[in-house]
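User: For my dataset I need records formatted as: sequence, then structure tokens, nothing else. Please produce one.
Assistant:
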Amino acid sequence: MDKPNVNAPDRLSKKTLIAYGMGDFASNLTNTFMGSYLTIFYTDVVGLTPAIVSVIMIIARVWDAINDPMFGAIAERTETKKGRFRPYIFYFTPFLALAAVLTFTTLGGKGGAVYAAITYIAYGMLYTVVNLSYGSLSTVMTTNPEDISQLTSYRMMGTNLSSVILSALSPIIMRAISHSTTFNARSYTITMLIYAAISIPMFYFVYANCKEVVKPVNEGQKVSLGVSLKTVVTNKPLMLTFAMMIFVMFAFFGRMGVVIYYIIYVMKKPQYISVFMALPSIMTVIGILVTKNYIVKWGKKKMTAIGYVGAGLTLIVMYFVDPSNFGMMVFLHALYGFFCFSFPIPMSMIPEAINYQEDRVGIRTDGLAYAATSLSTKVGNAFGPTVALLIMGAFGYIANAPQTAHAMQGINLATNLIFGICYLMALIPLAFYPLDAKKNAEIQLSLDAKRDLVQDRKSED
């Protein structure tokens, strides 16, 4: 008679799935607003040049390359009754909210650039603490592959719902505060204050309802940081996932950070900012709902490839289309958003890569592995807009002024063509990703057997 698997997890409740999705909703209340408006806040309100903004973001990302893996290692070595990751959400969420608000304030004068750098870097560090801990929860809440996929889907639903709401409401809120179609410093600060305040109880809802149940096979065994880092960088599926996410995050967040310039200065439709900022997110939600069954039927790699090709080609076409053709602009923005259904799929590959590593070498590094995802997000969020701003500056962009034809060409290039090519480049690491449903099932059976053996030894002791 077969022995029951004592490590088989209970299926996650609907409440737990909703709570987990609420975490990305909360995270993106501040992070999406920052990704959409920080560059234009720095250039058009604080008065920083595109070059200075680029330097600030590069410095922040260089620090993140050190800080993210460092915190990942700290988090996965944390041992409390509440788990390894949940306590960081509980204690640091209020500080993250405060840092988000401070990032959208300005001292003015010569100290503006220094203050901007300090607050932006502080926000990035606190974002790592809270969001890396939140993201790592998905790897320790269950081992059921269907639930892991569900967690990713709910997370992306939270991401895109918050993006829709922010894209639609932010311009309205800021116009109401500034009493003008031109947003002032106060309108940015108060809008971020609203979003930051709402995010705090949402993160606490995640903390209360998302429990850590998956224990490493090597639980209790001390693993040096050097060994952990080596197992991560030699984890082929994880490194390939990291590589594809670098390209995609660069494209996704880069375009998000500068598309407002395209709407205002190239399309010359500032009154439709809400429409063009919200439409892609709405269509992404629709795309996820329409394609979710095909991800199981056709496989993650094929569906991810379809999404990347579709998003990339749509942006390339948009570069060549007359921006005054309003109907075509609406259609292409909607089509681009639909193909972003593929955006969450690589995130569901992270737990697969962690399991692959644990089965192969007996070391589970949830925190460090997820640090790669966190780092790819922040690299994309910074370097995407940074490269776009440098291109715009090189083509002669001048803040708060009518743009020359050459400058508008630069904005179009930076918003559409560059990032369309990046989506297509993500297909290269995707092509080499080695795991599929069959292989993942074999790995999970192997890990379950090892955990059963550990449990049996503990029972004998």
